[in-house]
Design brief:
Two copies of one chain form a homodimer. Chain A is mainly α and 383 residues long. The first copy, chain A, is built from 17 helices and five strands. Chain A has a three-stranded antiparallel sheet with strand order 2-3-4. In chain A, a hairpin with a 2-residue loop joins strand 3 and strand 4.
Chain lengths: 383, 383
Amino acid sequence: MSSATATAYPMPKPEGLEGVVAASTALSHVFGEEGRLVYRGYDIHELAGKASFEEVAHLLWLGHLPDGRELDELHRKLGANRDLPDAVFAVLRALPADTAPMDALRTGISALGAAHRDLFDDTPDLEEAIALAARVPAILAAFFRLRQGLDPVPPRPDLNTAQSYLYQLFGTEPEPRHWQPLEVYLVLLADHGMNASTFTARVIASTASDLCSALTGAVGALKGPLHGGAPSKVLDMLNEIGSAENVEAWLTHALDTGQRLMGFGHRVYKAEDPRAEILRGMAERASDPAFYALSKTTEERALALLEERKPGRRLYTNVEFYSAAVLAAVGLPGDMFTPTFAVSRSVGWSAHVLEQVANNRLIRPQSEFVGPTDLHFAPIESR
Amino acid sequence: MSSATATAYPMPKPEGLEGVVAASTALSHVFGEEGRLVYRGYDIHELAGKASFEEVAHLLWLGHLPDGRELDELHRKLGANRDLPDAVFAVLRALPADTAPMDALRTGISALGAAHRDLFDDTPDLEEAIALAARVPAILAAFFRLRQGLDPVPPRPDLNTAQSYLYQLFGTEPEPRHWQPLEVYLVLLADHGMNASTFTARVIASTASDLCSALTGAVGALKGPLHGGAPSKVLDMLNEIGSAENVEAWLTHALDTGQRLMGFGHRVYKAEDPRAEILRGMAERASDPAFYALSKTTEERALALLEERKPGRRLYTNVEFYSAAVLAAVGLPGDMFTPTFAVSRSVGWSAHVLEQVANNRLIRPQSEFVGPTDLHFAPIESR
């Protein structure tokens, strides 16, 4: 059998919908030229370090920051929604211990939708969004424990999302020096315009499918290294470099041999990603000083070398670069970085699903057909 | 907490990418005005009833109909790829017996990708497409058995896809009067341009994610009643009508009370869906004559009443209408109709993924932002 690409027809041109407005949204927007990210009217600098993750979730889901009563109610609902059905534990137990956590999360959310049709099989609404966002960290933490041969930790409704996630992962009371940087990370990653995973969730929701289907698909998209699947590679790169005095030689060799430096450049930002700036500050406070120094030196030299080698390409530090330092400082291993991104983004995804279904139209694009149209069938003997 | 739609911001306009060319493809095209469907150059009438499902799979994956040696090789590979890892059986066993089969399939494909990273975690290629398409019917059949308290049926490599699916569902040698109409159905549904589930698969694949992630997302999209989730509703409607003499009164009442008649109209076709015509012929041969007569009378009166009540809307019989009769004649219950659609479409989805990755560009559309951009954070006490 010949290879899949050995076709007589012309290859389709890749467009990737670049510059095509696929949907309108009031949720968030990336101003790529200016390096600005806005959630529901608030620049990300207005929120990071000031608003809690739950306040930001309320903002994205409902359109305004909560008052005290609204915030209490959301905390109560999230706290009451962290339990998982037995079927989901059984599914997570059935997976091999070396399963990639993103695969486990995708399977766990799908199983949750399968086992909890009472909760999730209606038209997605706010209660479902809360019920699912509360369970995403619980699914991940359960798998993280099970793969080590440990029992899952029962949820504690009094904890906020960042605390609860760490508590269910590690089974100990989370320290402020861990949950506070994690919370800022969760605020920063909660939404980001019409990226590929968010668009996936909206396309699925546009068929009138259910919320767990939409987020299962979104996790599958976020897993891709061109989207959310690369932050642990920043950690791998920094570990390989090892110390500040190796930076120049390592980066030069990497660029000379055509390797891509991890943590730089973005499809939309043509300026520094505003999240990178905030995460740099978090990393400086939260990380081991030697690791922060290594990160900072690597960043500075990489930016200089990229500008030298690829002038005019406007490659800046992206969100992944300092995510690695912050998440490592919080105690997470590299393979939990992208899943933790999904903990945050599950709020944005579900907010986009709510926006989609509130005014739905099936997303079914046109395609350009680049093949022939008038071939005639011949029986196999005469081929 | 107020409702999710209670926002002060303007609601986004639904566009659904109607008329927007989102991608080029050489795989298939729907000529909506003319009511034509073309796979790789062949009108669907050239293939249905002439080409086997495996020949069509080869055509979609590789761009040409196979010669004898190529077809033998594909049969051999499909036959050798129907086994499931223990983890997938354990996951399917963990799901409640009343799980919707589409939810079980979505979870099973996701679990397959999690448990079989050796097979599925590379850049998707033809071998992966074969390996997954062979296992989709095996997953469904296993769940179908398990939910009845029966053991899954081990695969038989000598059977073709339609035979093997029925054999693994029912545990008996499939009769030609069952597997032959099923095979025509599988040929007809294998691909259909840039529909929502196919587009979902391509968006996920464009992030460089894996094949199982792409098809897991596609199953979630196909589940939606605005896409593939409605053929069993045609069966429900026909069962409710019950007999030919009730047709007129039932349809009139349904239309008077604003109900939607199931099995008519399509977003793209403004003429009869060519698949409906072929399925009508299959239904006439395969169905119980009384059920066929009921279907035919219902179709004729529905078309007449729709033309009367919604003149100019060009509502024609769609693929779902006679799918119901054909799949029921094959012995499938209504809740296995859409999953059986997925058995067929898994070939088209994987062919689209191969086409996407052969010339990839991340699918990341622009969005129009319809909210404010300059709000200022105020502490919770002052909200």
